Amino acid sequence: MHSANHWGGSLEIANGDSTTEDDNRSRNNLDWDRASANHYNYDHHPNLHETQQSWLLGPPEKKKKKYVDLGCVVCSRKALKYTIYGIVIAFIVIGLPTIVAKFWPKQKPRPIPPDNYTLALHKALIFFNAQKSGKLPKSNGIPWRGNSGLQDGSKLTDVKGGLVGGYYDAGDNTKFHFPISFAMTMLSWSVIEYEHKYRAIGEYDHIKDLIKWGTDYLLRTFNSTATKIDKIYSQVGGALNNSRTPDDHYCWQRPEDMNYDRPVQTATSGPDLAGEMAAALAAASIVFRDNTQYSRKLVKGAETLFAFARDFGKRTSYCRGNPYIEPFYNSTNYFDEFMWGSAWLYYATGNKTYISLATSPGLSKNSNANFMIPDLSVLSWDNKLPAAMLLLTRMRIFLNPGYPYEEMLRNYHNITSLTMCSYLERFHVFNFTKGGLIQLNHGRGQPLQYVANAAFLASLFVDYLNATGIPGWNCGPYFLSLDDLRSFATSQMNYILGENPLKMSYIVGYGNKFPRHVHHRGASIPTGKTKYSCTGGWKYRDTKNPNPHNITGAMVGGPDKFDKFKDSRTNFSYTEPTLAGNAGLVAALVSLTGSGGYGVDKNIIFSAVPPLYPMSPPPPPPWRP
After folding, report:
1. How far is CA 19 from CA 15, 16, 592, in A?
2. Where are the transmembrane segments (predicted)?
């Protein structure tokens, strides 16, 4: 039986021995299939279409990817491998250094070395410890100093405990209250502006102790518990010119050995002394603002003193006709103390009465503030005018109070700007030595105290303008960079520190070359069991030998107008330090040091000042239907 074979050839259905043929055919077909699988590649037989190729070869076998089952995630082994490699590399690059840095023994970072101004500042503050009078604490740190002046004012019946304490003024053993007050004001001002710097160099507590030592004493010199007083004790000790009787100038004794009479001077009028004392207590009250009780005590005392100063019937200078004071610390005017004291009292209390006085046209006129007299641009224990105007300029720069103060504050600002111009050599207002020292006292002795004060004012003015982003100021038709004024301040202080023709530091203990014959009784007489009499100490005054004790940090009087210096104990104009001079030195140094950062604290001084403008009313409550 035959059937049509649509695939080519015939199909036979047979019985019997036909099985053998089928087996042979199947075997032949199998061989053909194998051959086709092995030899009949479609690349060699392009005439075979795809369908025929698929019958012969079947579908191409795909390469299977290998997967890893992680439970909740299934991923390829290749991806897993690269992920693990990435984690290992990240650990080596990031994790391992982090672990090492965390557990490696830590070393404290080296502090930035202090600059020269900081080094000098540390020493300048020590001078005040050497000048202390009274019962000294064990921590005073001056081994050649001890208790002294314990009988000062003991005969006074209205002062319990007498007038013990305070500071000796200079190389003698007199306590002049006028320059003591100025020194305390200057120290407080420097702390108010640069508290962050004092903290950074570890001197904040020290300078507060120095200020309090002075203000505690000043509070004893008048009835600080009263609201109205009729006198102030203005001086303890002293001497008459050309005296031949035992006193602070005729005798050359350590303060611990004094055995002569020390008279107390009393001022029943004294607008200058009382105004300066009020400034000192008011400024200190801001320094001690965290000690509420003591700060209030200082404010109360300052207000009492200023009321005494403003008493119209007590307008005679505190030193007028007094031979114990007038030849040494004579006050030439008191209207500058009115401006100075009222400005500080305004900052200490916020009472507008004080700022109204400080900006009154009458006070400006009487203090000669409107006249650009060169001598009135020189800050000193006698003339506070340039400092007072700068202090009030501060208010205009940072608070901009507007009417009714703006006109006078703008005037003070303009005069302050011209004062700063006068310090620059290019304008020829003051002479300069060949070595570069400005001659603010016209070549007379003890020039450095005026130089340090000017450097402080200039540096402070720069910091005020820097704090408000102002790059300079006008000097007539010229606009000058603040760098010019900063350079003036740094050049003058660098001269004092040793950049001068003699290569000498005028601060005792700073640098390798400094004065060794300082005009100072306590430093020039050896300590020990021997007490030298009034005239017994003369041999130490007159010897050519160096002082047995260095009075560390003392800024001496300074060189002459030719940059020459005589290191002679008997020539006080060269070698005598003063309390007021060192206060200006401290202020200038802290203003220039980079320790603790640059700039002033803009807000501390205004702590007690109320808002100058009405407060905005609170928003209305939300509307409810």
Report:
1. 7, 7, 122
2. 84-104
